[in-house]
Design brief:
6-stranded mixed sheet; 434 Repressor (Amino-terminal Domain); 276 residues
């Protein structure tokens, strides 16, 4: 079928689940409607799970195992989907990030992953493990993905990265003083790159700050734009220009209001003086 959506099982546990469901259905000579009848779902529902547009529920996974005679295979893979350390929607964002020609970041309270030192990143994930939010294995999953994302930024051609950090990102100490000192130095190094524009949105902006929550905007090779934002439960990748364009406008307004790159680096240097 020439119009089938390509699925990369490395993209996310949800994509791996959908691809396996499609393959096993095909091997048994079943259409989506055939499988839907066996499972008690609609063909549209089967299609949504196979293409990663819908997450499999425990009931869905159980019915898939019964219909396809796969023991508890799909139940186990369904657990991986639900218990992944990554927010739903984030793996899809990473795919687009690795294709982007321009990346615009705004963050509040924490240094963005692409700019984190390994020690800073490990402190963040260790805190999540300590709170019981994720397991040690999930922490490793997050760190491995972060390392791959950071390495991807060095691809050719190098994407242009615009960074605006709320001042709170610089004052929140993560991992102790030595870790924070190294992180501040890393920011200064990033700011010096020819492929980066780095700015700080100071506290004094007050109500003139364009965003209250983190946002990421990507420009793709075809000059289209996508936006990514997160809630506590999921990430959302938005491609509709009607919603993305106002965010781009707000980002440009934020850059005008924020400190210049020279002023931003000066602020980092002053904070760095206060650390050993």
């Amino acid at each position: 079928m020439v119009n089938r959506k390509h699925l990369d099982p490395e993209e996310s546990p949800k994509a791996a689940f959908g691809l396996r469901l499609r393959r096993l259905r095909d091997e048994r000579g079943l259409t989506q409607d055939d499988l839907a009848e066996l499972m008690g779902y609609s063909g549209t529902h089967i299609s949504a799970v196979e293409t990663g547009r819908r997450s499999p529920t425990p009931h869905f996974a159980h019915r898939a195992d019964r219909a396809l005679g796969t023991g508890d295979l799909f139940e186990r893979e369904g657990d991986a989907v639900r218990h992944s350390a990554l927010l739903e929607g984030f793996p899809e964002y990473v795919v687009q990030e690795q294709r982007a020609t321009e990346i615009r970041l705004f963050e509040v309270g924490i240094i963005p992953g692409l700019l984190q030192t390994p020690e800073y990143a490990k402190a963040i994930t260790s805190g999540a493990v300590h709170r019981g939010a994720i397991t040690e294995q999930q922490a490793e999953e997050r760190l491995d993905l972060l390392a791959r994302r950071q390495a991807s930024i060095g691809r050719a051609p190098v994407p242009f990265v615009h960074v605006v950090l709320d001042e709170s990102c610089l004052h929140r100490v993560v991992g102790g003083t030595p870790t924070m000192a190294a992180q501040l130095e890393r920011l200064a190094e990033v700011a010096a790159l020819s492929s980066t524009v780095f700015q700080v949105a100071p506290y004094c902006l007050g109500e003139r700050r364009s965003f209250d929550l983190p946002v990421t905007l990507l420009t793709l090779a075809n000059r289209s734009h996508v936006a990514y934002a997160e809630s506590a439960q999921q990430g959302v990748l938005e491609r509709n220009a009607r919603f993305v364009q106002p965010l781009l406008t707000a980002y440009h307004q934020l850059q005008v209001e924020a400190l210049s790159q020279a002023e931003s680096i000066s602020m980092i240097r002053e904070l760095r003086k206060g650390t050993p």
